[in-house]
Amino acid sequence: MASNVNPTVRRRRLGQELRRLRELKGMTAEEVAERLLVSQSKISRLENGRRSISQRDVRDLCGVYEVEDHRIVDSLMQMAKDSRQQGWWHSFGDIPYSVYIGLETDAASLRVYDPQVVPGLLQTRTYAESLISGALPEATPTDIDKRVQVRVRRQERISAADNPLRLWAVLDEATLRREVGNKQVMIEQLEHLIEMSQLPHVTVQLIPFTMGAHPGVSGQYAILEFPDAADSSVVYIEGVTSDLYLEKAQDVQQYSVMYEHLRAQALNADQSRDFISKVAKEYAR
């Protein structure tokens, strides 16, 4: 197994396999926790990939599940070892949304809806600096710079020559009208948005105010899909102190249907570029 695997994705795959083994054994997470003298929440975190899994955890769980095939045990142990490696984002220290970054780094496509600001992958550096400093008034210049650097590094998925991230962004008109930084920052940001939208793997659509109520009024969310069929799609909802990750098929399906309605009601790609260009000219007056 390669040494440069994505630890976040490796934890998800390992957690899914451990859940499968538990269900084959016909045991509940509570029963497993009682056998191992640990909390039920630990078993749940191991299975959903939100917690690092040690080789000892894997060994103990395989014992409870009576896994006799040593090849399976060895494979799971190796996955546990790989899952404890550090991704590129760990070099920046403690990043609150590191789980999301790990998923985004390995995703094949990303569908995002944002009613407030331009999505991070499409932000200019000056827009990102102004946005982060405004959203986090108590953050130090060092913290702001670190977050900006991480955001710029994430954008490499869009500009990658090989296998770039397929990005589809639906934005509310408010993202264009909210003056982040100053007028010049907004002009540069909107021009950058137009430029990025012309890439073959990037689509940007806009929902104007005149559309009225629509399926996205409940707030921002993103849907990540992965190249490996073994990795289920994830709906990501960003929070202030914690984030929400939805992986159940029915949840992903519901958000996917809602996103299709958003795309259908939004201006098409060409109309959206024209609209963004019009707003940019208004800032230039």
TrEMBL record:
Pfam family, one: HTH_31
Domain of life: Bacteria
Domain HTH cro/C1-type: 18-73
Protein name per its UniProtKB record: Helix-turn-helix transcriptional regulator
